Amino acid sequence: MNLDETHDPGLESWVESANSPETDFPIQNLPFCLYRHGGAAPRIGVGIGNQIFDAAKYSTLTELMALGRDVLSQLRLRLSQALRSSHPHPSRHLLHPIAECTLLPPGEIGDYTDFYASIYHATNVGSMFRPDNPLFPNYKYVPIGYHGRTSSIVMSGAAIHRPSGQLQEGSAAPVFAPSRQLDYECELGFFVGPGVASGRGIPIAEAEDHISGVCLLNDWSARDIQRWESQPLGPFLSKNFATTISPWIVTLDALAPFRVPRLQRAEDPQPLPYLDDDRNRTEGGIALQLEVWLSTAKMRADKIDPVRLSRSGFQHMYWTLAQLLTHHASNGCNLRTGDLLASGTVSGPEKEARGCLLELTWRGTEPVSLPNGETRTFLENGDEVILRGHAGHEGARRIGLGECRGTIVG
Prior knowledge:
Blueprint: E1 32-37, E2 43-48, E3 51-56, H1 61-65, H2 69-83, E4 95-97, E5 101-104, E6 112-115, H3 119-129, E7 145-147, E8 153-155, E9 159-161, E10 164-167, E11 175-178, E12 182-183, E13 186-192, E14 211-218, E15 221-222, H4 223-229, E16 243-245, E17 259-260, H5 278-283, E18 285-286, E19 289-295, H6 297-301, E20 307-313, H7 321-329, E21 340-342, H8 357-360, E22 368-369, E23 375-376, E24 384-391, E25 399-409
Parallel strand pairs: 6-21, 8-16, 9-25
Antiparallel strand pairs: 1-2, 1-5, 2-3, 3-4, 6-7, 10-11, 12-15, 13-14, 13-21, 14-16, 17-18, 19-20, 19-24, 22-23, 24-25
């Protein structure tokens, strides 16, 4: 990925909060969002420190995404120049505190596909149910995914209602009841920019030109419903009740300093040619850290801060964003601007890098202990799950993804 003047770690903004080393949104980031301030119509903005800067004349982010990555890159450059401390800033009237704004969905999400791109997650889950054969042989050749439901995608902060479904234990007949094993899945979502017509496909060398940016995504999962219904066709009611996304779209340009080689272990086969090229090998990965935090109702009542449950690295994913997008369209499937794709649970090789409770508590047999004496195997009513993400290393400004929150209600 080419670095340019927007990545200069020495750049500062006339928006003072953007210069804090703790901010998710320094001038080197400038994530896009759709927001409403007061009674005004929705507008496209960018996050800068603790403010939103009015960014464009387009009515939805979908309209902007359709123009392609080059247009997004040029807009990001102009915004960077306008927000630098060295630039005259008569445009303060275009700033609005994030706390005073309503953050909206980026536009109509036409389709949603969730993948299974972490080999560590797939191996952990497989070993719980198939200890002698945890990973099916196709996993290392084909990116596995399923089509989700867009109408139940909600924004960060929305309440998540505990789903009901068929539960079955041992040899007993199934019963219909609320899920007792409600779980989160810490994932990275990404949006399709320019679409692709049916029958055309996307060469892997061009795949990232069709990605507008990334967001945090929580694929809520009812593990007990999932276990019973997933034979043989996979998840249905265990997944379709809610998916939460963060409101910020962080561009691949902002993440350029953090590109790394794709995960390739000595024991793994080479991808098939349509999923492989030099660029994807050398910089297909992204060194992003994703964190899961939990706040129970009792913790909030006792004024105890949320506790971090896990921290995983996106660089450990087996399949890259480019490979997921290319494979999705490889059979001739069309893709439309604003379609949402997700990585699947982001897990790493260490226990603290397991991105869901199913893994972290090993199917409920190893409860998580919380600072106030509570324990969790799966989520209880009143639990708030908070996803956070950032990239950062010496010589580059920290780039954050904001937060993705959801609270379980009965």
